Amino acid sequence: MSVHPSPLLRVRGVSKRFGQLLAVQEASFDLWPGEVLAIVGESGSGKTTLLNALAARLQPDGGEVHFLGRDGQLQNVHTMSQAQQRLLARTDWGFVTQHAADGLRMDVSAGANVCERLMGLGQRHYGELRSQAQAWLRRVEIDPIRIDDAPRTFSGGMRQRLQIARNLVTQPRLVFMDEPTSGLDVSVQARLLDLLRQLTREMQLAVVIVTHDLAVARLLAHRMVVMQGGRVVETGLTDQVLDDPQHPYTQLLVSSVLQP
Amino acid sequence: MNAITSLVNATPVLAIERVAKRFTMHHQHGAVLQVFDRVDLQVDAGECVVLDGPSGMGKSTLLKLIYANYRASSGDIWVKQLDGQRVNLSTADPRALVALRRHTIGYVSQFLRVIPRVSTLDVVAEPLAEDAGGNLAAREDAREKAGQWLARLRIPERLWSLPPATFSGGEQQRVNIARSLIKPRPLLLLDEPTASLDAANTRTVIQLILEARSNGAAVLGIFHDPAVADAVATRRVPVAAFRAVSPDQLASPHQPTQGVLA
Question: Which of B254, B20, B23 lies closest to A248 in space, CA to CA?
């Protein structure tokens, strides 16, 4: 087992306010390479705001987020230049949105969607790009025959799998996911979950996944953060939090679902 | 006595010290279920300690505390890793707990938690495949070993490529056993591993437990079948000893019910 002396992501006291509303209050945690962390809580609990702050899509009002660069240095993601942020966002990071239409270019071909990040990094060889795109489509269980079709013609589940391929093509080390399986019907969800589970293990991805679905957290995440009203009220191993919840809100959350 | 044995032997694989466990149910008017008042228990390498006691006394709860599935309300649970280092589950961070489960603590739960769409062979191979990482030969080796385990537990080969979701209770239990034992770990927790097995498979599981013991594993188990318990135990421990109340008080309405602790 390799030893990682430093976490991949170090989050300390992150807070975000929208006018009077304290959307996130003093969130702190470490994320290590290969770890999958779920942020759960009901709508309005601040989980997406926290995710956006972690991914530098949002400037927090307080606190710091550091990311371990490939050079082994921890970098503050909010004080680096915008150019650096953009580079991170299209190489070492991925961001999978709930609505695939927000994360894809709906009118360009599936192949071009997959290859955009590679082209952004300077890859120009058409044949190589195309074969990488085909390999990735296969990997996310999309028939490569669809490579020239626009995602507009894809089903919801296919779009979501395409979005995942588009994000993973640069072998990122950290992927943010915002409700990636919501809005898909159950059988499509199971397939996507299994695919995510496989890919995170094979690629040793660190993932921060926001979900309101405890079953999703159970299947994918090693650890869980429970949020209520902008606060982190409980953290721990996923099965610990689900099977032996300590905080009143977590107990309510767990007892409200039929089978987490 | 304890001090002397720990001087003579190496440190025990498992040492539970002053562990209390209560469940506070915030939405049941803050009801408190006190399951254990004080657990002190050591299990050495090569031992098989069988927990005795009627349902609802917290036998499964104790195993879940040692697997860090439940959190102790107070006290320490020390587990010795392969490198000789001891980790206290009560203070370890989640990352250390994940590593402990991967390398040190094996746990056969009562039910297999099924992962959709993954074949039985891969479900069983997973603990070894995880260690193999990107090494394809080691991954193939893991699948081959998984096949040997499934064969030994009499799961017909035609089922290996199917996900175990649709299997019978006894088949799922055997898949669960294979998955939990395929990677030898220093501490083995067994929660009724033979509950739904026929005689032949029960004999196989007894044999597997004895093999684990003689390979130096420390085993802690619950067995509904006294014959199985007799066959594997080196020592019996009644869980009632870990509670302040006497067993005849158990019928009172303030005591936990079987359903709560199951």
Answer: B23
Which among A52, A50, A94, A49 is positioned nearest to A196, based on CA atoms? A94
The DSSP annotation for B209-261 comes to HHHHHHTT-EEEEE-S-HHHHHHH-SEEEEGGGGSSS-GGGTTSTTSPPHHHH
SS3 content of chain A, % helix, strand, coil (to 5): 40, 25, 35
Full DSSP string of B133-189: TT-HHHHHHHHHHHHHHHHHTT--GGGTTS-GGGS-HHHHHHHHHHHHHSS--SEEE
Test B27 with A251 for CB contact under 8 angstroms. Answer: yes
Give the C-alpha separation, B177 to B166, whole Å: 17
Q: Is the pLDDT of residue A245 over 50?
A: yes
Under a CB-based contact definition with an 8 Å cutoff, are residues A187 and A30 in contact? no
Question: Is B20 in a helix, a strand, or coil?
Answer: strand
What is the distance between the alpha carbons of residues A243 and A252, in angstroms, rounded to a whole number? 12
The C-alpha angle A104, A110, A114, rounded to 5 degrees, equals: 70
Q: Are B81 and B100 in contact (CB under 8 A)?
A: yes
Q: By C-alpha distance, which of B44, A94, A55 is closest to A47? A: A55
Q: Which two tokens stand for residue A116?
A: 């955009």
| Residue from A247, A216, A255 nearest A36 by CA | A216
Helix axes A110-120, A126-139, angle to 10 degrees: 120
Interface of B with A (CB under 8 A): 23-27, 64, 68-71, 94-95, 97-99, 115-118, 130, 133-134
Give the single-character DSSP code of A117: H
Q: Which helix (H) or strand (E) holds A235?
A: strand A231-237
- pLDDT of the residue at B8: 43
CA distances from A211 to A38, A43, A187 (A): 7, 10, 18
The alpha carbon of residue B178 is apart from the nearest alpha carbon of chain A, in Å, by 20
Q: What is the rounded CA–CA span in Å between residue A166 and residue A129?
A: 12
The percent helix, strand, coil of chain B (3-state, each to 5) is: 40, 20, 35
| ipTM given for this complex | 0.86
pLDDT digits (tens, 9 = 90+) for A20-46: 999 999 999 999 998 999 999 988 899
On chain A, the residues whose CB falls within 8 A of the CB of B62 are none
